[in-house]
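TICKET: design request
STATUS: open
ATTACHED STRUCTURE:
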């Protein structure tokens, strides 16, 4: 006789797994930040955007609007913003990074 997990337990298990995913995602983001600092690719060149390759995608709820945390991406270099105006590209997310007291900002595509 196979045992069946009660539905309310499945909800708890799902939330725990998603929490573990988010912790792993944040650790990966910190690792990317250290990598960018080490290889000096933190700053995005003028008139370019950071290109990210999607390694994994996970949404807690399929009907939610996608967020940055839904994607595990790896840097794939920089690309001219002019290239992104082509018909084969569609902007999915924009991330603005404020530079604090400098007052500037950078836009990256993920």
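STATUS: resolved
RESOLUTION: sequence designed for all positions
ATTACHED SEQUENCE:
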């Amino acid at each position: 006789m196979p045992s069946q997990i009660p539905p309310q337990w499945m909800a708890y298990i799902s939330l725990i797994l998603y929490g573990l995913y988010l912790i792993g995602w944040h650790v990966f983001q910190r690792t990317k930040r250290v990598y960018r600092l080490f290889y000096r690719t933190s700053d995005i060149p003028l008139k370019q955007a950071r290109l990210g390759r999607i390694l994994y995608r996970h949404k807690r709820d399929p009907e939610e609007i996608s967020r940055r945390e839904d994607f595990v991406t790896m840097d794939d270099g920089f690309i001219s913003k002019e290239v992104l105006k082509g018909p084969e590209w569609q902007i999915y997310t924009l991330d603005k990074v404020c530079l604090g007291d400098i007052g500037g900002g950078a836009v990256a595509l993920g």
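CLOSING REMARK: Residues 98-110 have pLDDT under 50 and may be disordered. The helical segments are 7-38.
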